[in-house]
Structures are given as C-alpha cells and as structure tokens.
Design brief:
Layout (H helix, E strand, L loop, with lengths): L1 E2 L12 E12 L2 E13 L4 E5 L6 H8 L7 E10 L2 E2 L5 H7 L4 E4 L13 H10 L6 H14 L5 H5 L8 H13 L5 E5 L7 H18 L2 E6 L2 H7 L2 E6 L2 E7 H6 L4 H8 L2 H6 L44 E3 L5 E3 L14 H4 L4
Parallel strand pairs: 4-9, 4-10, 7-8, 8-9
Antiparallel strand pairs: 1-12, 2-3, 2-5, 5-6, 10-11, 11-13, 12-13
Helix pairs in contact: 3-4, 4-6
C-alpha cells in the first residue's frame, strides 16, 4: 500500500471540497478536539453517508461545514469550498444568504428548525421570500408542493397549523420540506428520519435521492444506521473519535471493509452479519469496550484499545493509505478483502 496521492477528480472542481477541517472546544481542562483533520469531496448529485457511533464527531462535522459551532467551540482550521468558493471566514451576512438557499441543514430535532409561535405556512413562505423574488401566492404554492413531496396528508390544512399541533414525525417532515424549498446545492441531513416510521422513511429517502439526481444537489447524510447508508449513499465516510478512518464507495466499504472499526460495525449489524454466513439466533459480534471521551483519547490510533489487531505500532499516529480496492484507510493494519477481524496482522501480511 502507498500513501494516497492528491485527488485530481478528472480535473473538475467538486461541488464541495473539505480539507483538514478541525473543530475544538475550550474547557477548564484545556482544549478538546471534536473534529480532527477531516477531509472529503462531494460531487454534484452525489450522496455521501457519514457514519459512526454516537459521539464520534458526525454531527459536529456537519455544524462545522456551515459555521454553526457555538462557543466555547470554534473551527480551528481547514478549508471548506463550495463550487470552489472558500466558505471559511465568510462574514455573518454572507452566511445568512447561503443558509436556507444554497446550503440547507436538516436537524435531528425539528424544533431547531421550526418556530413554535408561527404557523407552518408563515415559516415556509418566509423561507422562500428571504431568498427568491416571487409573490406570496407563488411562495405558498412552493410550500404546499414541498409538504406533499414529503408525504404529509391534507397538506393545505397542515400549512395552517402550529408546530405543537403536529406529531413529532410530522414536524420532522415539515423541517425536511423546508430544507427542500429553495432546491439548495448542498443539504446536510443529521439523522432526520430517526423518529419516522419505516414507510415514511423510505418515501423521504426516495425523494432525497430523486432530488439529488434531478437537481444535482449534493447530500451529506449523517447516521449510525448502516442499512440506510447501504440503500441511499454513493460513498461512505466512517468516523471514529473525530477522525475519518475509512472512506470509499458504498459497495467497497460495506462489502470489503478495510478498517477494523468498519468491520466491527458491520459484524454487529444483522443484515451484514447474515450476508457473511452468520447463523440466525446466534449472538452478534460486538466491538469490545466503548468509544473514548474526546477529552482523553489514547495516544496513536484512537481505536487501538478496542482493536484485536493492535500491536505496539498502533501507539503511533497511523498513516492514511489507499487499499487495492480504492478505499482510503487510516490504519497501520488494514484488512485485506475477506480477512477476519480477529486474524493477527502479521499472519496475513496486512502491513502497509
């Protein structure tokens, strides 16, 4: 294996390019790094799945991309380019013009989007009028269409409702509809379908895929659910302890994982385990231990205390390498295709 060369992407500028993004939080005990040297690219019309355990930095990465990190947190470094335009360092006025127009975010809690004292139609119409020179009737028509697209029944009646008159799942669908209103170039979705039933979830995932393909919208889908990523994303980034430890196409990462952490996540997923010959009724394999707090990360590879393949080399910061299948992996001992997680690295010659 060799170090990954700089991406050329066929000489074309991607929709979104993130390089060396880092976010830190000041505390009495010193600074804590929540997002550590994160980098990836997103093409127009592409869906990127950002996956990992709770607390691994997925949501904070999304907030960092659109400058929504509140004090005592701050974006410490890196570059975020949309259509080649650097977003880091933009003044608040420029960010207000971008958010809700060219960039939209769907939060896990819909009440971070909705104003509890305003009717749904007022909030949606204002979202359109803030970025588009159209009449109120046209803005209302767009709002109605957006609600219908996310599967809200009796959409005209719901427009006249207040958020507290809607169920939690209904409020989440309204929040998703608001994100779709102005057909943004980039949508960042932070586990938005967690509170929805399976049927509505499938409808919304289909709608998001259709939007990406037809309008060229880039979508970053933040989730811990690998089954959602498998059916939605074109590419996957796996995060652990604030860093991306593996990324590649969805098929590559889910079928031939190279990082031990990715293999562990899949072994703990029923569908993936069954596909690898796991017998029904047998306990799933679990990753031992738990993710370390960001304030007390282990030296070297943050995953090494939980990794059965770790050795003394893992006490040093691992390199970012490319596998033969095309993934980028942050590991001293990447897994060859089909290798067992418990196989010693020295026995299968996995050293880069």
């Amino acid at each position: 294996m060799t170090p990954i060369p700089p991406s050329t992407a066929g000489g074309t500028e991607p929709l979104l390019r993130v390089e060396h993004l880092s976010t830190r939080f000041r505390s009495r005990g010193g600074e804590v790094t929540a997002v550590d040297d994160v980098g990836f690219e997103l093409a127009a019309g592409e869906v990127l799945g950002l996956v990992g355990e709770s607390g691994c930095g997925k949501s904070m990465t999304g907030y960092s991309l659109i400058d929504l990190v509140d004090p005592p947190g701050y974006v410490a470094g890196g570059s975020v380019r949309l259509h080649g335009r650097e977003l880091r360092g933009l003044p608040p006025k420029a960010w207000r013009a971008l958010r809700g127009d060219r960039i939209a975010m769907i939060f896990q809690d819909p009440m971070l989007t909705l104003n509890p004292v305003l009717r749904i139609d007022t909030q949606m119409v204002e979202t359109v009028l803030a970025h588009r020179r159209v009449g109120r009737a046209e803005a209302l028509a767009r709002a109605l269409d957006a609600l219908e697209r996310v599967g809200i029944p009796a959409a005209t009646e719901r427009l006249r409702s207040y958020p507290h008159q809607l169920s939690g799942g209904m409020r989440q669908r309204v929040a998703i509809a608001i994100a779709l209103l102005n057909q943004p170039d980039l949508i960042i979705a932070d586990e938005p379908t967690t509170a929805l039933d399976v049927t509505i979830q499938a409808q919304i995932l289909y709608e998001m895929q259709t939007l990406c393909r037809e309008a060229g919208t880039g979508l970053i889908w933040i989730t811990h659910d690998l089954s959602v990523v498998a059916g939605l994303a074109d590419r996957v980034c796996v995060m652990y302890a604030g860093r991306i430890v593996e990324q590649g196409s969805t098929a590559q990462v889910l079928e031939r994982p190279a990082h031990p952490y990715t293999r562990g996540l899949l072994d703990a997923t029923p569908a993936a385990a069954l596909a690898r010959g796991h017998r029904r009724g047998e306990p799933l394999r679990q990753i031992p231990g738990s993710a370390p707090p960001l304030s007390a990360l282990p030296v070297g590879c943050a995953f090494h205390p939980r990794c059965p393949r770790a050795d003394e080399r893992c006490m040093q910061t691992p390199p970012r390498v490319a596998t033969a299948a095309g993934q980028e992996v942050l590991c001293w001992h990447p897994l060859p295709p089909g290798a067992s997680l418990t196989a010693p690295a020295a026995d299968i010659g996995a050293r880069p």
